[in-house]
C-alpha cells in the first residue's frame, strides 16, 4: 500500500528502512522523503514506526526472558 503518494513510498519501503536502522520520523524523512511534500502521509508513517518500535520492544523482552 502507498504511504506517500507524492513520493511513491510504500509501506514496504518504510518497513525496510525501519529494519535497516531508521528509528524516528526524521530518519524516515531523510532516507525516503516521507513528510517532505504535503505531509498527509505522516499518520501512516508514524503508525508503521510505532508498530515497528513496539515489535522491537517485544523482541527485546523475549530475548531477556529466554
Give the gist of this structure.
Helix content is 62%, strand content 8%. It has helices at residues 11-19, 25-32, 42-65, and strands at residues 2-4, 9-10.
Mean pLDDT: 90
Per CATH, what is the topology? Arc Repressor Mutant, subunit A
Strand elements, count: 2
The run of helices and strands is EEHHH
- Report how far the terminal alpha carbons are from each other: 35 Å
Given the structure, what is the number of helices?
3
In the CATH hierarchy, what is the superfamily? BFD-like [2Fe-2S]-binding domain
Structural class by helix and strand composition: mainly alpha
Question: What's the main sheet like?
Answer: 2 strands, antiparallel
Spatial sequence of strands, sheet with the most strands? 1-2
Q: Give the CATH level 1 class.
A: Mainly Alpha
Radius of gyration (CA) equals 13 Å
Strand content: 5-15%
CATH architecture descriptor? Orthogonal Bundle
Written description of the protein model:
This is Bacterioferritin-associated ferredoxin. The chain has 66 residues and is mainly α. The chain has one domain: BFD-like [2Fe-2S]-binding domain (Arc Repressor Mutant, subunit A, Orthogonal Bundle). It has helices spanning 11-19, 25-32, 42-65; strands at residues 2-4, 9-10. The chain has a two-stranded antiparallel ribbon with strand order 1-2. Strand 1 (2-4) and strand 2 form a beta hairpin. The protein is elongated, with a radius of gyration of 13 Å.
Give short descriptive properties of this protein.
Arc Repressor Mutant, subunit A; 66 residues; mainly alpha; two-stranded antiparallel sheet
Amino acid at each position: 500500500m502507498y504511504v506517500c503518494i507524492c513520493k511513491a513510498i510504500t509501506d514496504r519501503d518504510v518497513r525496510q528502512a525501519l529494519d535497516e536502522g531508521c528509528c524516528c520520523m526524521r530518519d524516515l524523512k531523510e532516507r525516503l522523503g516521507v513528510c517532505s511534500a504535503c505531509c498527509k502521509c505522516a499518520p501512516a508513517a508514524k503508525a508503521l514506526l510505532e508498530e515497528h518500535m513496539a515489535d522491537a520492544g517485544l523482541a527485546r523482552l523475549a530475548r531477556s526472558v529466554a
